[in-house]
Input
Amino acid sequence: GITPIYSETGTSLNIYSPSVEKYISIEKATKLEAAKAEEKVLEEIITVRHPSYCFSNRMDWLGQTEGNSYIAVVHIDGNSMGKWFQESRDLENYRHRSRSLKAVTEESFWDLVDEAVDIMPELTRENGFAVQKDKDGNKYLPLRPLILGGDDITFVCEGRLGLYFTEKFLRIWTKKANSQLSKYGKPKNGEFSACAGVAIANTKYPFYRTYSFAQELCTSAKKSAREAKKGSWIDFYNISGTKSGNLDAIRKDEGIRDLELYFGPYCLEADQEKSLQHLKNGMHEFSQWVRSDVKELRTAFYSGKEVLDTYLMDMAAKGNRLPYKKRVGVDYSDRGYAGMRTPYFDMLEMMEYYPLFLQGGGIKNETGN
Output
C-alpha cells in the first residue's frame, strides 16, 4: 500500500484528528494533545487570577490595529545556569534546584501578566491599540506564553509592547531568582541574571523566521553579558522586508560605509554605557520633536557623516539638539556619533515600538532633571 505523507512533518498520515478534522501524523497529534493540556492549565490559572481576561490563540488578536499590525517574539534564557546546576551536591540537590528554578520562572511570568492587566486601560484606540474579546466578553491579553519552564521562556506579544514586557520580566525574574535560589549557591559572578532577544515583525511575517531571530538576538545579548561579566542584557531587531541570512549578516548589510548604526545590546544597569535607560530617555526626548524632523534625521543617518553633519547644523538653527548622551567620557550629542558609533539610530528605530504612555514613568535626563 501507499501511505500519504504529512506536509508539515514529512511523516505518514496515520491518525484522524477530530480537532483539525483530517488525518495527521502521530507526532502532530501528540503535540496537539500536549498543547490542549497546557492550554487548560493556562485557562484555569487566568480564570482565578484575572477572571475578566484570557489568552488569545490568534496572533492578530493581541491588540494590533489595521495598518499597524506587529508582533514581538521574546526569547529569554538565564546566564550561566548550566554551570550553576553542575555545582549540585547530588541528584536530590539537582532536583531541588530544578523545581525551584521552574517555580521562579512561572511566578515571574504570572507577575508579568499582572503588569499586562495593569496597563490594559491604556490600550485604547486613542493610543493605537484594539483590544479584542472572546465570546464570553473576556478581554484578550496582549501577550501569551509559548515556552515556559526552567530558565528558558518564550512569549509573544503585541509588537509595540515587546521591549517593555521584556524589561519587566527580566527585572521580576532576577529579583525572584536572587531571593529564592541563592540558598543553593550563587553563580560565579555573584548574581542571577538573564538575557533576552526581542524580534519585532509584521503579524503576517513567517513566525518561525521571527522566532529564529529572537533566538539569535538572545545569543547576541549573552555575548555582551559574558564580555561585561555581569548584568542582564537585551538585544532587539525590527524585521522589515524579506531579508535573508543570519542576524550578523543582515546588520552588516544594513550598515553604511562610514558609520555603524546599531549600538546595542543594552543592559538593565543604569550606570553602563549601553544602558536601556539611556535608550528610553532618548526615545522620550525625540518624541518631543516634530515628526517630520525625526524622519529627516533618520534619513540623514542612513546617508552618512557628511549629510548628517549638515542636517544637525540646520536642526541646531531651529533649536533642536540631540539628547545629551555622555557615557564613560564620550559625548555623542555634538555630531551625532563618536568614532564609528552612534546611539541615536536605535532610538529613532524603536520610537514606533515603545508607546509614549509607557515612557513617562521614571524617565529622567542625564542631568537628573
